[in-house]
Description:
Layout: H1 6-9, H2 14-45, H3 50-68, H4 70-91, H5 98-118, H6 127-151, H7 156-182, H8 188-215, H9 223-253
Helix pairs in contact: 2-3, 2-7, 2-9, 3-6, 3-8, 4-5, 4-8, 5-8, 6-7, 7-9
Amino acid sequence: xxxxxxxxxxxxxxxxxxxxxxxxxxxxxxxxxxxxxxxxxxxxxxxxxxxxxxxxxxxxxxxxxxxxxxxxxxxxxxxxxxxxxxxxxxxxxxxxxxxxxxxxxxxxxxxxxxxxxxxxxxxxxxxxxxxxxxxxxxxxxxxxxxxxxxxxxxxxxxxxxxxxxxxxxxxxxxxxxxxxxxxxxxxxxxxxxxxxxxxxxxxxxxxxxxxxxxxxxxxxxxxxxxxxxxxxxxxxxxxxxxxxxxxxxxxxxxxxxxxxxxxx
Length: 264
């Protein structure tokens, strides 16, 4: 007997439409929060044309790992926050971001590995396949990012507003087939460690930014990058959330079978 999805069997309610929009808006906010720091850090040390490619791939693949297991992401956030806070207190808050980032990544990797070994029913077992799908999707969409930045390097916020929904759609197009082919690419503890490494590192860098904003003080060599990141992140998050929210509501309202990031 043929089975149909919920959206095919029922007319979407306003709550359904709002829920889908909010799910997609979260993915857009996460994408922007990852894209801007990677773009600014790599753009400060590498050629201009490399930064948008690297940032697009990193944000798409990083988001894919967060979607691998929301429960794991929450647990990593707890442990990494505690570890990074302790590191900042012990070593002084006004320090380069490498230390907090490595501490968050290390704690996240350990927590993720343990999670992968203990929680047998977790969707984290597909993290390797999702990472590959995210890397390929990000590489494909990075062509658009490169073209945009070369034409107008000052309009980064609008670029992210465009890239977030496009990257999401391309990733979802690829994720199912990658999961079918590469579901057992790596053992569960490695899947968890990979996801934890990325999520924990992101949290560590984010806490370094938050500390700098709270104290209005960072190490001199990071001042310019810090200023650019903190200036652009709020607008980028707002713009990407708006475009992805719109995409999610359209998907739900017209019952378009694009899937959601958490469906895989």
